[in-house]
Structures are given as C-alpha cells and as structure tokens.
Amino acid sequence: MRTSCCTNETETDRAAAAPKSPQPAIAKKLGGDSIFRYLTTFFAFSILAILALMLYEMAGESLPAIREFGWKFVSSKDWDAVQGSFGALPYLYGSVVSSVLALLLATPLSIGAALFITEIAPGRLGSVVAPLVELLAAIPSVIYGLWGVLVMAPWLQSTVQPFLIEHFGFIPLFEGAPYGVSMLAAIFILMIMVVPIITSITREVLLAVPQSQKEAAIALGATRWETIKIAILPYGKSGILGAAILGLGRAIGETMAVTMVIGNAPNISLSLLSPAYTMPSVIANEFAETTSKLHASALMEIGLILMVVTLIVNAMARLLIWSVSGRAKGGAA
Amino acid sequence: MNNKVQLEQVNIHFGKTHAVRDISMTFPEHSVTAIIGPSGCGKSTLLRSINRMHDLVPSARVTGKILVDDGDIYDRGVDPVAIRRRVGMVFQKPNPFPAMSIYDNVIAGYKLNGRLPREEADEIVESCLKRVALWDEVKDRLKSNAMMLSGGQQQRLCIARTIAVKPEVILMDEPASALDPISTLKIEELIEELKERYTIIIVTHNMQQAARVSDYTAFLYMGDLVECGETKKIFTTPEQKQTEDYITGRFG
Ligand SMILES: Nc1ncnc2c1ncn2[C@@H]1O[C@H](COP(=O)(O)OP(=O)(O)OP(=O)(O)O)[C@@H](O)[C@H]1O
Ligand SMILES: [Mg+2]
C-alpha cells in the first residue's frame, strides 16, 4: 500500500516536470537538477557577497569618522552637527537600555505564553492562541508606533508615570517629569513587539521536548508545574535563550515604532521617564539632512556598529536554537 | 503472599480502539511478574494504567478497578501524583534528564518532596547507585553530565532515580530492549535484587528474559489476558494452545 503510494508520487513529479523539455525523462531530470543546484548555490553565495559588500562599503564610508574620532566615537556623548563633533554614546546607551529592558520584561511573558499554548492548554484553546500570537508579529511596526504615540504615550503620561513618580520617585529610575514619550514608552513598545517572536520560537522549542522527558518527570510523581520545571524548561533552556536573543536582535534594530515614542533626545539619563534616542532612530531622523561629509560618515559608522551587533546577536541566537532542535532530532533517531 | 496490585475487569479504550479487554489478575507482593505477548497486544497500555500514566492522553479511558494495597487508584479524590510516587516506572528507552548531572538525576524525583539537606542527598545518591550496581562505575564523576554514560548505565541510572523516590511497585516497560547482552544481564540481576523490596511488573519481548527473571507470567493477546500463572508452569505446561505457540515461537 505504502510503496505504491510513493511510486505514484514520483510519477506525478516527473509528469509535472515533463512538458518543459522533449528529452528523455531521466536525462532531463539530471540536467535540471544540476542546473538547479548551481543556481541555488549561486544565489546563496550572492547573498553572502552582498552582505560582505555592504559591510565593506559601510566600513569605507565610516572611515572619515573612524579616523577623526577613533574610540571617542563610542565614548563621547557630544553630538553636534554644527560643531562637527560626533559622539554616539547616547544612541548606544538608548539602544542597549531600551532593548535589554524590553527583553527582560518580554522573556518571562513569552515563556509563560508558550507554556500556556503547549503545556497548559494544548487542546483547542492553544491552537487558537498560537496563530493569534504569530499574527501579532506580522503587524507593521509603524502601526505599533502609531498606537504607541496616540494611545500608550498619553496613557503613560496621565496615569503610569505620575503614579511611578509619586510612589517610586525616590528611585533614580523613576525621577523627573512625566513626558509620555520616553525611554519607558520605547521599552513597552519593544516589549509588545518582541513577545510574539520569542513566544513562537519558544513554542517550537517546547514542542521539540521529547515525550519521554515529560513522562520521566511525571512517573517520578511530578505535578504539571514540576514537570515543566525539572524536565521541559531545562531541556529547552538553550533554545529559549536563543529565542530571547533573537528578540534582542529584533529590538535593537527596530526603528520606526521606537522613533515615534522614545522622544528622540540624546540624553543619558538613569530615569526611564526621560526621553532618549537610539541608533536606528538617529540614522532615520538625520540621514536626509546631513550637514557635512563627516556627519554622514558618523551616521554610517553608527549603522556599521548596529549591523555588526545585530549580525552577532542573530548568529548567537540561531546557534542556540539549532543546538536544541538538533538534539531533539538526534534523540528521535 | 499478599496481593500488592489487583486488577478487576480492567478495560482501556483509546477513542474507539479497545486496547485492553476485561482483564482481571493479581500481582503478589515482592515478586516479579512478566507480561508477554505479541506487539500491539496492549502490554504497555495495561502497564501504564497501573500508575495512571493514561491521565495524560485525552482520548484514553480506563474502566474497572485497579487496587494497590486494596485502594482503587482510579477512585475519585485519589491524587495521581501520589499514586505515581508509590508506583514508579522505568521506560523502554533510557530517559535521564540531559541537563542534569548523574547526581542530580538520582535525586530529581526525591527533591520534589521539598528541600533536601546535603548529607541526606549524598546518602541517597550513594545507596541508590549502589543498589543498581552503578556506584563503582560513576563514583568519581557524579557531577558529570548523565548523557556521558552508556545506554546500559543510563538505564540503571533511571532505575536508581525511580527507587530513590521509594516506590512500592516498579513498572518496567521493556527496560532492556535497547541494551546489549551484558547490560541486559546486569539489569536482570538488578531486578532479582530489587524484588526483595519492591513488587515488580515487567513487560518484555524476550522469552528467556521472562523465564529467567519472573515468578509469574501473564500472556496477553489482542487485548485479552489469555493465561497467567507461575512462570514455571506457563513455560512448561501452559493450559492454552495459544500460549504454547507463542512461547515456543510457533506463533501465527
Ligand atoms: N496513546 C494512544 N493512542 C491511541 N491508541 C493507542 C495509544 N497507545 C496505544 N494505543 C493502541 O493500543 C494498542 C495496544 O498498544 P500497546 O502500546 O499497549 O502495545 P504493546 O503490547 O505494548 O506493543 P509493543 O510490544 O509493540 O510495545 C495498539 O493497538 C495501539 O495502537
Ligand atoms: Mg509496548
């Protein structure tokens, strides 16, 4: 039964490929295959080539700024296009703080959501929630930004920030006046934007945990929560970390929504209530009106830093995720 | 001898599949009972009903009575988690926790009871590993990852992990089928030792193994219990023709 099924399939495949060329089926198939292989290899390598070319070009364009400022470029907070002095520290600071804090909030939330989908409500409810979460990832970031600036920022300004100032104002994190648009707004927006990604990857990681691992825990008398704690999460640990880092990569590179809600002021302030600035935002805001070659070069250098950081972060994340799914496959074999 | 586990008219369905049909039998305390039968006859299904593993399968339905020490484990109000602590299980494929050390694997289940002082944990690890004859092989690398062990060692580790919880009954589903002959022999010797303290129910495809390790044998065929009784008797003078055919390998 099975075998006949398989034969059928190959025959249809061949039939589908047949009309293109009059040659005998087998020869044509081989020819098509090798052309296809060369073509895909070519495309794969051209992507790498484009990447290398981009890095090379950006490095070249950044060179004037690199020569002029050296390491001071990343340690100085003095960004003055008129004076021609460029220090990118406020943007680095804004990017790192906003994405790391967003990640710290988003990761537990996402793990919880993924556990809910896979372990707590794996039936119909889970199968409804999962695609909904994925859908959130498809919303254009400008929409998030619009919502952030029209709905969330006013709400922060009128409710959340005054509350924080009143009750926690003695902590430097919550000092100052309620502006609405602020680091806090950016953190929230980024959190909302990375939760779907982290959730859906964590879900896949959790689904890769073998049944035998769960059964091992359950047979020892573990409750559902204990099973999650001793079998499921430890098994998926590195994959979940990978998911979080992938979220970090996304958060660092996110431009539109952050630019709309962060306030775009190159401050380095401990307070989350004050406006800040990020690397992608400054590029987006200033590239069209550069005042000098050096200004353009400085923006390019920020872009270079951003690109290298995201590449490294993404590569790390992929490695971690692969390590889990690879192990799951090995275990199943 | 006491009957530790008793099945009364147990039926198990998966949706429309009737996997176990009306089985009644007893498992005497401190004995080894082997469950044999062709693939798909319901051995694992029957075994897993004795510690309520089917609770995890939404389509599974268990009816009838399964008594452990005279209490029906399927009674309302019985906590399946408490049952699984009394009725432990060893699986076909060794499944140590890969993120844990050998040491942590042994006490993984025990630790669920609450905080465990260091000395007590050391003691449990040592005594359990000694009982599964693994201590000498691993005592110098207790902190290394459990996946470093061979398959046979992993399986003995899993048994150690199971007995660390101090169960009364141990269910084993083809515990040696993934192992080489030497490891298999070690597991069989271990079962011999363990029966002093525990009641053991073992599913096996290996007739010699059933004959070697078990005191009682039950033969299942297509969800029915064809015959059960003392292993000696089943293997020498079975009452049913079917049993004889299966044991002698003339099955068809
Ligand atoms: N989770 C499940 N869902 C649906 N049907 C199941 C499930 N588990 C077992 N069955 C069915 O129950 C019957 C008995 O299966 P079981 O695994 O108990 O056989 P077995 O005797 O252990 O076989 P083997 O020797 O191959 O392990 C089979 O028909 C099987 O398809
Ligand atoms: Mg089985």
From TrEMBL, chain B:
The keyword Cell inner membrane does not apply. InterPro entries: AAA+_ATPase, ABC_transporter-like_ATP-bd, ABC_transporter-like_CS, PstB-like. SMART domains: AAA. Residues 5-247 form the ABC transporter domain. The keyword Nucleotide-binding applies. GO terms for molecular function: ATP binding. Pfam families: ABC_tran. It comes from the Bacteria. CDD domains: ABC_PstB_phosphate_transporter (cd03260). Keywords: ATP-binding, Nucleotide-binding, Phosphate transport, Transport. PANTHER family: ABC TRANSPORTER I FAMILY MEMBER 17. This is Phosphate ABC transporter ATP-binding protein PstB.
